[in-house]
Design a protein that fits this description.
This protein is of the alpha/beta class. The protein folds into 2 domains: 215 residues, Spore Coat Polysaccharide Biosynthesis Protein SpsA, Chain A, CATH 3.90.550; 78 residues, no CATH class. 46% of the residues lie in helices and 16% in strands. It has 13 helices and 12 strands. The termini are far apart.
């Protein structure tokens, strides 16, 4: 049992029979072991339960009715027994030193209530890139960042699988908002950032984020007409009213960035009808700075968007093949 860094791990799972084993093995292979691992089966209809139960006493397994990733994570948090909580989705994985990096950081900075680390983004098992740091630039292995709101506003990527939070701090801000189908992590980071204006940062990659899995809890929600994002924006703007002018500006910058990102992803999924709905809501909330190209693309029918995506991917594949002979010659 880890006494210096008492850690609970929460893994929500939905129809994760093919990926859950990898996630659990990555947690069990840590150089600094976690104190407990909690898997929450959010109403799966496949063999998710069998996989979790095959790990025996290493895993505390719970089942609940399907309620989405926020509901599953909150359920897991309610079962946690230790001071610190970390999260991992069932289709992602931790690198072996995830816990060790956070332990070293937080033991050196006991004043912190939460911390995040860099992570690798992978697709089809191949590393694509490292997570974005936004305005953050540091050569130190660990550094204390004093303005998490500034990080969020400048496109620094804080991801659930590369975050640890004090359990008491999660309870203080109310945990994940279960009304949120998507952007539930963004919503929580914003509330944490305003409640505690310090965040720890581990510059070494600590996890692998698998993109493109549409069967994950968040992936399933992303393809639907998710209207809950507007709830977050309304909350952000309401909370900004009590802040100093500089911080209000950061909130507006953050809202503008995330609103464009949400609109872009909605169009990318081919759901232009929902994209047009988002634009109407943005106008009512007086959100400025929405990219003109997204406003124009949202006017197109879904089949046109799909055709454009096909043409783009075909052209990119063709150009890639043209480059390969040249690379072999050099």
């Amino acid at each position: 049992m880890n006494q210096s860094f008492p850690l609970s791990v929460v893994i929500p799972a939905y129809n994760a029979e093919s990926t859950l084993g990898r996630a659990l093995n990555s947690v069990l292979s840590q150089t600094c072991p976690a104190n407990e691992i909690i898997v929450v089966d959010d109403g799966s209809t496949d063999g998710t339960a069998k996989v979790a139960e095959s790990f025996g006493e290493s895993v505390n397994f719970f089942r609940k009715e399907n309620g989405g990733s926020s509901s599953a994570r909150n359920f897991g948090i309610s079962k946690c027994q230790y001071d610190w909580v970390a999260f991992l989705d069932s289709d992602d994985a931790w690198l072996p030193c995830h816990n060790e990096h956070f332990r070293d950081l937080l033991l050196n900075h006991p004043e912190l209530h939460w911390a995040f680390g860099r992570y690798e983004i992978e697709k089809n098992g191949q590393r694509v890139r490292l997570s974005s740091l936004g305005c953050l630039a540091t050569e130190k292995q660990h550094a204390t960042i004093f303005d998490p709101l500034n990080l969020l506003a400048t496109k620094c990527s804080i991801w659930t699988g590369a975050v640890v939070v004090r359990r008491s701090f999660l309870k203080e801000v109310g945990g994940f908002d279960e009304r949120q189908k998507t952007s539930h992590d963004t919503d929580l980071w914003f509330r944490l950032a305003l409640a505690h204006r310090q965040i720890g940062f581990a510059s070494q990659p600590v996890a692998k984020y698998n993109v493109g899995n549409t069967n994950s809890l968040t992936g399933l929600a992303a393809y639907g007409n998710d209207e809950s994002w507007i709830l977050s924006i309304q909350r952000f703007l309401k909370m900004a009213e009590t802040l100093e002018p500089k911080d209000r500006q950061l909130v507006n910058q953050f809202v503008r960035f995330k609103s464009n990102q949400k609109l872009r992803n909605t169009i990318r999924y081919g759901n232009t009808a929902h994209a047009r709905w988002l634009l109407r809501e943005y106008r009512q909330l007086h959100i400025a700075g929405i990219a003109r190209r997204y406003q124009l693309l949202a006017l197109l029918p879904t089949n046109v968007i799909r055709s454009m995506q096909w043409l783009f991917l075909t052209a990119r594949s063709f150009l890639k093949k043209l480059k390969q002979p040249n690379q072999q010659k050099t």
